[in-house]
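agent: user wants the full assembly modeled, not chains individually. Plan: 1) parse entity lines 2) check alphabet per entity 3) run joint structure prediction 4) return tokens. Steps 1-2 passed, two entities, 440 residues total. Proceeding.
--- entities ---
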Amino acid sequence: MELLYVGLAALGAGLAVLGAGVGVGKIGGSAMDAIARQPEASGKIQTAMIIAAALVEGVALFGVVASLLGVLR
Amino acid sequence: MTAHKSLVIRVYFTLALAILPLFTYAQEHNEEHSSIEEAEKEFNATEMIMHHIGDAHEWHFFGEGESSVTLPLPVILYTENGLVSFMSSEFHHDTTGHTVVEKDGMRFVNLHEDIYMLEEGAEAVEFDAEHHPVNASKPWDLSITKNVAAMFLTVILMILFFSVGLARHHKKSKQAPKGFNNVLETLVLFVRDEIAIPQIGEKKYMKFMPFLLTVFFFIWITNLMGLLPGAANVTGNIAVTVSLGLFTMLIMIFNGNKDFYKHTFWMPGIPTWVKPILAIVEGLGLLIKPAALMIRLFANITAGHIIILSLIGLIFILENAGIAGVSVPFALFITVLELLVAFLQAFIFTILSALFIGMAVEEHEHH
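--- prediction returned ---
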């Protein structure tokens, strides 16, 4: 039973990372495109990119915290 | 800087100092209470990691058991009979509940960094089947723990850097500062020009600069100090990040203008039956925004520490010195990455705080 909980927690952490990877990847890719089109706006794009990435990452970290609570119950 | 503004900074500082320590030890420990029996000699990675990222009543540097080198910190407890205080060294580095400290007729034990008060007449702590103590209860713990001591250190550094260093320079001369003060000024201007002005706007940003500067430098300096060997994991403690998130929430709520509350609770320009639904969603948003800030900082820093400790722990789990060749360079890489994360998280916390405050004080054009 103990192993099941730990396994589920590990699976949850993995899924959270998967989602965040896709999300941050898309944000980074789009930011690259935008900078390539308009290099003079790169500063503003970077700030917006970091904010969006942080929001996505925050959701992934909810998953990590939930998994952590699962392991440490 | 006018007298009024420096007063505001002092008020924020005092508030932070007064409120933060109250919360740091309020968190529950998730680890299980093991019995008083002989501690396992086998290496337990979870225990090691939790010991490193958790708060403690003494500042542990190195060594194990009786021979540990630690800095004793004061334990302050609020019991039914008033305040009790003694140095944590009286527990002799014991966190299993063996050592009983007697003060003013009350007996205390340290059980996995939770201080328990034994009931009257009890000589030693007893456990039930689930290893919860049966004859002891937790008093209010207001101790200067490792995290609180580390926070005091950060606050002293910040006062030295800014009040004694940079502010005094600007009082004396109009020239640009040299050396370290110049670095600090660049960072202060970065917070103003990249965070405060774009998010809050030219007109109103000055009112929030003291808060934004304080959280930015507080988080950054504690993050960096947390990376030193033997240092406390302050921003990886949920109680600290809750306090920081609470500041953002209160500032957002108290500075919100009429438009902000109208858009939150009675959104104009949509069908009436949608308005109550949106009011619930937006109302919850008031809570969720600072809660997300809090979880982000806590989880990022804690995750970073756990990764580094796990990589080092791998050597002991596999009991093979050859693993060190892989895990030590990798741990070094993650540590360097954490240097970046330390800055990035301070930046993100500050910019999102500024964004939320900016949303609350924004002037809407009426259509």
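agent: reporting back. Confidence is low (pLDDT under 50) at residues 21-40 of chain B. The first strand of chain B starts at residue 58 and ends at 62.
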